[in-house]
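Risk register update: the risk of archive-format incompatibility is retired. Evidence:
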Amino acid sequence: MPQTSKKVMINILLGLFIMLSIGLLVYYSPAIIKIMSSMDNFRAYIHSTGHWGPVMFILFQILQIVVAPIPGEVVQVAGGYIYGVTLGSLYTTIGLIIGSAIAFYFTRYIGRAYISRLMQKKNNKWMSLIHDEKKFSAFLFIFFVIPGLPKDMLVFVAALTSISSFRFFTILIVGRLPWIIASTVIGSTIHMQQYTIAIIISVIAVIGFVLGYIYREKLVGLFSRSDRTKANPKSIPSYSTNRESRKIKRDTT
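Archived output:
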């Protein structure tokens, strides 16, 4: 098959896949919203699936990362509310890794052109960081550590860079695991009606989110400053240039 025809076929299949995903999401969104409308509803639904409960919970976490506009913290807190800290953190992390892997490898090997155009339309200032793997890795880690910020989009962005899979998933797990555990602690303490711990962790998370949101532009500037300097270097006349100019001046006189 010619390369052009193959590319057209991939784009058609990709478009059909995206349309199918959107259609399924729209069709099932009322049921999803109803299930996620409260912790008790979500817990009742997961328990109603019997032994498939952990699998269904992991699927919700995957769905949250790949397509659904559900805040990740909601699913994480629900994990602690349903399964407690240990199992809640485990199932949430498994869903996080699988969902991120789907988004990462889909973008890197299939939907690179589409995701790249989508990100360029958003015109994010930090997109300049994707050309420097070390700076982008540091930016990823900081962004993952700050609670409340929209992290799932960065999975798609990371796939557009040259960052290795091992490096990306290491940063993902190390950066997000502390707040996954903290979120499941909140859910578990709410279920056990130990509200003091839940309030303390929630306050810390809110403070972290507010500070991260306020200083997000400075964080971006911190990593992109050197790129701007390289892009606009100051013209410093060299010794050889001055010497040549003096020589030309003597010859003309």
